[in-house]
Design a protein that fits this description.
149 residues; mainly alpha; Hypothetical Protein Yqey, Chain: A, domain1; Arc Repressor Mutant, subunit A; 2 domains; globular
Length: 149
């Protein structure tokens, strides 16, 4: 069992003991997502990289829900999603700064030398591959690439 998975399990138990319902609910949902991933891939234990991927997916779902609830003017659901996002995001590594993304983008840009905006997918793909395992926002990478064209 990976260290991150063990930390999530211990945090789940401490949330149960302390009766922190918001944290408990968010961690139970995360544990369910992790269990689903284990069943889907057929492995008994997930390594930290796969656990991080599941957490990123869960955080992205929360971000999307937050945006939708803001548009629909649903403050009661909005706060719940924000709380869950905060709880789950503490398991992610620190986000990479825009300057660090730009530095990697500069390297990839010189390597790929895209001629048209149609080749932006290649650039984005290579940047994301180089930053794999780090907490980088794909939307930020896309925005920076589009600014170059």
């Amino acid at each position: 069992m990976g260290a991150l998975l063990e930390k999530i399990q211990s945090d789940l138990q401490s949330a149960m003991k302390a009766r922190r319902t918001a944290e408990l609910e968010a961690l139970r949902l995360l544990k369910s997502d992790l269990q689903y991933e284990m069943n889907k891939t057929g492995v008994r234990d997930l390594d930290d990289e796969k656990v991080l991927a599941v957490i990123k997916t869960a955080c992205k779902k929360r971000k999307d829900s937050i945006a939708e609830f803001e548009r629909a003017n649903r403050p009661e659901l909005l706060q719940k999603e924000k709380d869950e996002y905060e709880i789950l995001s503490k398991y992610l590594p620190a986000a990479i700064s825009e300057a660090e993304v730009k530095a990697v983008l500069d390297e990839v840009w010189l390597e790929v030398k895209p001629a048209t905006a149609a080749e932006s997918g290649k650039v984005i793909g290579k940047v994301m591959a180089r930053l794999k395992g780090q907490n980088v926002d794909g939307a930020l990478v896309k925005k920076l690439v589009q600014e170059r064209f």
